[in-house]
Amino acid sequence: MAEEKQKNEVLVEVEGVSKKFCKDLKTSLWYGVKDLWSNVGGNKQERQLRPKEFWAVKDISFQLRRGECIGLIGHNGAGKSTLLKMLNGLINPDAGKITMRGRVGALIELGAGFNPILTGRENIYNNGAILGFTRKEIEEKIEAIIAFAEIEEFIDMPVQHYSSGMKVRLGFGVAAQMEPDILIIDEVLAVGDLGFILKCFKTIDDILPKTAVVFVSHSMPMVSRVCSQIILMERGRAQFQGTEVSKAIDLYYNRFTNNESNEVFNDGSLELEHVELINANSDKVAPDTLLQLKWGDPLALKFSFKLPASKAIPKFSVIIFDKEQRPVAVFEKNTLNSPIRITGDRLVFKLHHPNLQLSKGVYSINISASDMHSGSPKLRINNVLSFQVLHEEEIWQPFLLKTTYESV
């Protein structure tokens, strides 16, 4: 009975929390002096913006119980880091109330909480003491922390000489092995290698039944992997909130829409007029929006070029990049025998791919053109078009290959 009561215990309670900042330092200092003089304080009359102020976080509310993990997602400037700093007690909200029950472990910035001139071992003792552990309790855990961080030979070296990956490993080792009631994790896991990240997630699985986790990341596979509820933030506000993690991720990906061309090189022999991503079931184009394709759908691209200075058909290279701008696929190049023709001073052609097996996510198209014979470059444009692949499963790998299984 006591165990069930502990499981249902609300460890994090955020009620209508807001935080505002001022865009101008001098004005911010003046407002601070006025607030102190008038004894306004944090929560009394702080819901109105004054000139040059803006809401970094506005009216955020949620509850988090032991065994639950909430994901905070959103693009840079959405207010995630500000909310985390309020949860960790580094800054106070201007309105609303935050209640944290139990020990709080936080990984909100790379190397945060470490004294750079102290050794890794000394920093473990310091962080453990801050969490409320006795020296004897820390000594019982220190070898497990050092082994988890995989920095045995560097543990007595000052932290200022650690690499970013070593700092992350040590920070996560301290935060996880000390088994806090509340664990706050920011984007720091992005620094670690894949092997360490997988070990971190196994540790999160182990401690989650006894812990409430607040998780912030730009990696949607990570978010999908651990979160039971989610908040999509934009300009400080909750644009989406609930337990439908995949729906929030799709909305997050939609914010990557960008159809503006980014011309890297052009020798003047051809100009890109228009690019279309054509739905396989119709000839309708999604104008200036992020077109969504289901996994397994055919993909058709239509390119329109103007040829002001040449009547020769170039060789085209069409490359797909993921949202982190990593090249994940390239289409076969056209040849002299490809059925592409020039009409007047225009070159229009379609590119077809029958079965799209890219995993769930947002992708962009880069195109380059070169001389068919010499290979000399003629044109290169990045991000000519973006599209989103829909699937119910969020995975790390860029491809989800269609597969059949048979008994033998």
TrEMBL record:
Secretion signal span: none
Domain ABC transporter: 31-260
Keyword ATP-binding found: yes
Keywords, in A-Z order: ATP-binding, Nucleotide-binding, Transport
Entries under InterPro entries matching the protein: AAA+_ATPase, ABC_transporter-like_ATP-bd, ABC_transporter-like_CS, ABC_transpr_TagH-like, Bact_Polysacc_Export_ATP-bd, P-loop_NTPase
Gene3D superfamilies: abc- transporter (atp binding component) like domain, P-loop containing nucleotide triphosphate hydrolases
Assigned protein family: Belongs to the ABC transporter superfamily.
Protein name from the UniProt record: ABC transporter domain-containing protein
Organism: Mesonia mobilis
